[in-house]
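Every protein is a chain of amino acids, and every chain bends into a shape of its own. Below is the pair of lines this work produces for a single protein:
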Amino acid sequence: MKTCQKGLTTAEIARMLNLNRISTSKYLNMMVAAGDAEMRAHGPSKVYYPCQRVPISTILNFSSDLLVVVDDSLRIIDANNVLLDYFLLKKSDLIGYRIDYSPLGHYIDTVILEHIQKAISSTGSTLNIKRTVKEKDYYLQLKFIPTLFESGDHGVTVIGEDVTELHLHRQHLEQLVDERSIELVSANEQLKKEISNYKKIRTELKTSEIKYRELVQNANTIILKMDIKGNIEFFNEFAQAFFGWTENEVLGKSIYDTIVPSEHSTGKQVSELLEELKLNPAGFTRFENENIKKNGELVWISWACKYIRDTKGIPKCILSIGNDVTYLKQAEADLKFQNILFSTQNETTIDGILIVDETRTIISYNQRFVEIWDVPKELIEKKDDVSVLDYVNNQIVDPVQFGKKVEDIFTDHKRIVRDEILLRDGRCFDRYSAPMVGPDKTYYGRIWYFRDKTEQKQYVEQVRKSEEKLADIINFLPDATFVIDTESRVIAWNRAMEEMTGIMSPDIMGLGDFEYSLAIHGSRKPILIDFALKPDQDIPPKYYYCKRDGNKFIAETYSTYLNPDGLYLWGTASPLYDATGTVIGAIESMRDITTIKRTERELKEHEAICSAIVEDQTEMISRFRPDGTYVFVNEAFASFFNKPKNEIIGTEFLMRVVKEDQPLFHQYFSGINKSNPVITLEIRMIPKEGEIRWTRWNIRGFFSATEKIIEYQAVGRDITEFVAAKESADYQALLLNQVNDAIIATDMEFRITYLNRAGEGLFGWKSREVMGKDIHDILQFNTTKDHNPGIMDQLLSRGMWKGPLVQATRSGKRIRIEWSISIFKDHAGTMRGIVGLCREIPAK
């Protein structure tokens, strides 16, 4: 046919085959019956065409399910590569053998044989079986499909699929199969009526076609056919259910618009893979690729793709069979991660690791093993355990004993060993070895761990010496101290405890049952050290004071057991931990504080008296720390600031100072030091809104031994009335008249407002005579800018002037006077007048 594109007549074929026409016609009819050719009737003529169907043997190898084909005598005549690979068999191990006597017979039972027999009788069936492997249940679906061979004989195609994950969908799929089978049977019956002239041949051909379609539609595999541009021509029911596309939605559409994502996370583009398929001489390829469902879910599919060519060898379409390997991909990723994790752990561990199989061949080791044993690279790469053993044997203190023990360990396949190895260079290794045994008790070799514990041993020795030293320290502590372990047994009892209780250390060491409590308090009941060991217990009432600070307990108790006159005992107890933080015991120290308690009682009585005295004072008294926190204020202080004492004590109470006085306050306050511990200042304060009061404060600083200030004491008095009195004229007169120097005051207009008695005696004028008069007229005293600009300039700029002047007395006598002149200001800082103090300069 390839050489005669226009076709041949029966006669021409007969001549070419050297047969008669009748024989040629019979052969053509046999090819039609076998499915190798197709025949169409055109009137009285019959036209034969090459069959376009794919042979079933080719389809079998496209499937990822387990497939086997048997004849009516149960002999295996074909099996796909998936089944052979799964059971590690060759096709020659199966072909020609009855299935129940073949290597597959172990998995065949009577129920499966009954289904095969039914299929031979043209009754296809599906059997769901359950198998338990390693305590895990697996569900398999076996399909028994009647098969018509080319010879016309009947057989069975058995398809096995793991349907564990799809077990819940089985009933729905069976219903679909039944419905589809009914439709196909009905269509088959209709076709039988339409082609009644060829009933037998057509019936057999249709039956074969139905079985083939059932194989395609019912296979739990994605099967699709597309043209060479990627437009979908066939999409089986499983593919529709898997991707979520219906047949009407997907047929004619491009795979790039339906099941191929626009972007791939990894791997080649599908278009590239299909182009490579064109260049494949076999026209067949396998690959795994990322696909997308209708709902946007990304899945991984393992595809087997093959070009379907026409009679001329030109590719017409692509047949693709795919299986969901999403879970497999995830498992591969997990396995890869686990391998990386194992490798990382293997290389980052501080142990040297060596794994040897049953033949004494090294199958794995880490770099740490090479480092601690200093094994040459070329030696370890030989993977010979005996050679490595000979090398490390030279580093051992006792190589003979070491080698003998290694051999004994290798001989005993059940032995687990942990011991120490001493090296000649002074190092010490911790060795651990265990056999590698499988679930079936098969021995696979040994794994060895080596850890350099030289520093650890040195540390243990240091700890031992430290413990001995600590024991000596505890023994010579001035406080009575003892230690118990987690079983409440005494493990340390120092000399101070012996002196306090009268019980010697050898007599109580190792004893439990609250023997230490009996020695201290006269009763076998838990005491402070027991609460440090087990802090969830209730503190007994014998401790009138108990405080917990983290894991430390501090308590005080009164006892008459050790002394009939009574003792006050102060104790502290805390748990003891090892290097891992595990509690290994507890320690308690006690001190006789009877003298301290009596002193405290006397001190409290004295403090009570002092406190009463302080509280009764009218002065404001307070004590505060450098950070401003008040530790004490008396009632006078609290009343002045209109605050309860409890709102001041313990807080950083801020005394409100008039703004103009704040610089003065800070200047004086910052001047307190060790050499100047006390300051006195007068400032205005605001005890409450809208009120200003003058106060005088004596502030003292208290210092530590390092001259660091630790506390302040302030004693204050309200002097508002006193200040007011000072500002009054009567008070000034009373005060200034006692001064021996002459004092004269004017307002800013130079009118005399005051002249004291000494001034009257000096100048000869009475105070009442000069009051309100211009000082220049009385004393011939010029301070104006016109007459004496230097005096007035200094008064205005500096606030004062000093120097000699010549004045006239009332009698006209000229005398030299030494002056000290100042500007007088009120509380608001306004200049109110000028005050001058003077005395006569004696003549030389």
Summary: The mean pLDDT is 82. The longest helix spans residues 170-194.
